[in-house]
Design a protein that fits this description.
By secondary structure, the protein is of the alpha/beta class. The chain has ten helices and 13 strands. The N and C termini lie far apart (about 40 Å).
Length: about 290
């Protein structure tokens, strides 16, 4: 028997967490220096949070220490359960390293237990969709090793395509890995960004206006998606639900997926992408093909 665990970045709604009995390790974030913890994502007021940032509030995050993971993992091990932890990309955060460090320490204390950590090289629903897949496989009776192996093999196919209203949030928090997107907003130029093969954020294209950005994201989906009718596709938005709905309609035209899961960006990832960010997550031929 094993426990499925993840972190705040997976951006999963409470009903999904409950349905698969997922253990969620909360991340911290700061708003104007006030430290907060994502203990109850259901209570998160996305509109108020992103409006505050629009009004000049400074949002930031910090790396989760290994002790936080130990605090949440050790009680599970004491229950006699193994752990499959599915975490956010090591390419954009040191938190996965903390998870791996915690797991290593706990293996020494509980040598009879198995602890597997998986770096999804993804964030938000790119990570969350892997957690859901793991939950589905658990229901089907798959063992911990098989699930971990499948997720690791599928990482290169998790396509993450997104745009932001203000590139300065990513620039300020150090989450952008190339300088191609260092562009101003005066001319209404929107960067198209992706998660690359190493789980880092890079800019691959620029378009004029949000509407064209949505069209470009949908075009990438149509170009790369595999077996759309069999998969859950994720959309995350930072308080721009109308844009999210418009993107959902676009991807339903040629390659309608089995389900579209739409969420508001949780506050930790939201601190980096900023208000107005919009992302699409799906399984495609290859994330490197974006």
């Amino acid at each position: 028997m094993f426990k499925l665990m993840t972190d705040t970045s997976a951006n999963l709604e409470p009903n999904v967490i409950s349905a698969y009995d997922i253990g969620v390790i909360p991340f911290n974030y700061y708003l104007n220096g006030d430290e907060r913890t994502c203990m109850d994502i259901a209570a998160f007021d996305g509109k108020a949070y992103y409006d505050a940032i629009r009004s000049g509030a400074k949002a930031s995050t910090s790396q989760v220490p290994p002790q936080r993971y130990i605090e949440y993992m050790e009680p599970v091990l004491k229950q006699g359960l193994d752990i499959l932890f599915i975490g956010m990309s090591s390419g954009i955060s040191g938190s996965y390293s903390s998870a791996a460090t915690a797991a290593s320490e706990l293996r020494e204390q509980y040598p009879e237990r198995k602890i597997i950590t998986v770096d999804t090289l993804s964030a938000s629903l790119g990570e969350g969709l892997f957690v859901i897949r793991a939950g589905e496989m658990m229901r089907e009776g798959a063992d911990i090793d098989r699930i971990a192996k499948e997720i690791l093999s599928a990482r290169e196919k998790m396509c993450q395509v997104f745009t932001v209203d203000d590139i300065m949030h990513l620039r300020r928090t150090g989450r952008l890995s190339n300088i191609a997107a260092m562009i101003g907003s005066v001319l209404n130029i929107k960067p198209l960004l992706k998660g690359d093969g190493g789980g880092k954020i890079v800019c691959f294209q620029k378009v004029r206006g949000k509407k064209n950005a949505l069209k470009a994201i949908a075009a990438k989906y149509d170009e790369l998606v595999e077996n759309a009718a069999d998969q859950i596709v994720g959309i995350a938005h930072a308080d721009c639900s109308d844009d999210a709905a418009a993107l959902a309609e676009m991807i339903r035209v040629k390659n309608p997926p089995k389900q579209i899961m739409t969420v508001c960006y949780e506050p930790v990832t939201g601190a980096h992408v900023g208000p107005g960010a919009l992302a699409l997550f799906f399984i495609g031929s290859s994330r490197e093909a974006i």
